[in-house]
Amino acid sequence: MVNETLRFTVNQALTILAQERQQLNQTPIRAQLFTGVTMQLKTIVLAVGLMSATALTGCSTIGLSYSTASYNSVVDAGYVIPAVPRTKIPPQYLRQEVNYDGGEAPGTIIVDTKAKYLYYVLGDGRAMRYGIGVGKQGFEWSGSARIALKREWPTWTPPREMIARQPKLAEFRDGMDPGLSNPLGARALYLFNKGGDTGYRLHGTPEWWSIGKAMSSGCIRLMNQDIIDLYNRAEVGAKVIVR
Fold it and tell me: Considering the entire predicted model, what is its pTM?
């Protein structure tokens, strides 16, 4: 089954390239455009490689994986979110729908801190996958929680422990106003468990280069375009499992 899928995807990629190449030969700017098509093909072929690797390692997902997500500049609530330079993001961390057989109910969010992926379970063996940034060494965490609050363009208040480590943050002890430089980005999902507020959030970040890395104080960060997408899908009360 996997081999048949791989063959289909490769053949599809080659067909796209042939069609585009034929069309581009009829235009005066074919050299520039063909470069873009070649990059598109490389992305597809790399995705095929990821599919193969996933199948061989027996992971719970089989990526489809040519991402069609938009990372263009977005105007949201009066803020202009800058475009993300997609070519500088490892393709596996781009938002994409994948096959998923974890067994969780639709609407569940799974955070794979080792792989730096967040899955939003769609059901019928499918999930939306996002690249994430996670807690740096000493700030990792795992467990279950639920989304208690959702906020658009949230304020950010650094905890006392963070201010103690970074005294310059004291000016924000009463909260940092929403905005493009706010560490929580465009959206935040607040995680609570039986003990109350965990202090952890699923949130946006303007630092797209931190995706795929462990450099936060424990919260799970997504690119702003991705957290907006997740925010629109996730419901208050949804279960979040961090592994």
Answer: 0.73
